[in-house]
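ESCALATION

Customer reports they have been waiting on this structure for their group meeting. Please prioritize. Original submission:
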Amino acid sequence: MSTTTTSQTPPESGGPGPAEGQDRPGRAEGQDGPGRSGGQDGPAPAEEQCRPVRLIQNEVTTEIPVHLLFRDEPDPVSVPVAPAVVGRRPGAGEQPRFRRPGLATAPPVPQVDPELVEHRGRALPGALGVLAGACGTAGCAVVSWWTGALPVPVAQALWLPASAGAGLGPAQWAAYAGTVALGLFGFGGLARGRTGQAWVLDQFGRYRGTVRRTGLTWVNPLLLRHRVDVRLRHWRSEPMQAADGNGVALRVLVLVVWRVRDTARAMLGVEDHETYLRECVEAALARVPVEMPGAARGSLDAAADALGRRVARDAGEVGLEVFSVRPVRVEYAPEVAAAMQRRRIAALDARQRASVLTSVLDSVEDTVTRLTMRGLVELDDYERKALVKDLTVAFCAGRGEASP
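Update from on-call: job pushed to the front of the queue and completed.
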């Protein structure tokens, strides 16, 4: 039995291997195996010709019999050993390669059409619309007088002379159409702009600009107008599901302060921007842990800051500007409220007991120290222990009667 680091099979005997040029054991004299006869050198056998090439040219090892490793003799017998070449096995001596974990990537932010950006829409002062409408109305009256369709009393009230009675010809119809269109465009495009509100103009499904003018304004009546509130707004949510750092279910009411920054994206980039904001708040509450008030100093503020950053990032792509998302009320979920209330009461009770015990021990120590230092009593160890015990019981009983 022996250990070897060679790629060849070691000899069966534990002794030294045969020297080069000597007969191998187990063979008849004069026979050196196949390919050799009469002790004469012949061609090398096929096994020796197919030896593997050395993989490490400068490394050689030797065979060491196992029984020599456990000898207690001071001068072990030297045993000649034959050199052997170390064959490197696939993967031997190689350290496993570890891949560094990649950085956690943030969830993708929703993308809106980059060309959908708010720009100023075309609008005119309302006085021009009133003037155009008045001109159209006056033109209709004149054409009616021209064709003779205007009654005499009305013509006299308008200080018009007697009707010419030209009838309804092509020219009269064209004049009628022009004056009616002018009046409709003049009065139909009038709108009242309010502070804090804007109009998103839409023509056949294509964004045509945003009007933020206040007062009487004239806008093309062929454009569809969507009113948007751009004032600073706040939204108080309903109880939403959340969890603290330990995974305990909570119910949280949050107050969100926000406003519409880009009216084009808020109205046309998403179906309903208010519903989208509410969904963003719910998604943020599912990822950010919220602590109960008083659990740790500043934990509620840190959770509010994290919620605000996450919601502002998600809602900013649809034209909403979120200023703050702050939990207003945090309470345990109904399914765990009773158990957590008992746990909090037990913790408060244990904390109160610890504080009472600490104060009692301080009082006992102060009393015994004063009695000893002033020489009022001389106590050995047994008497000191008995005095400490009696004082502790008395102080604890007095604190217990005073606490209720």
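Sent to customer with the following note: The CA atoms of residues 239 and 253 lie 5 Å apart.
Escalation resolved.
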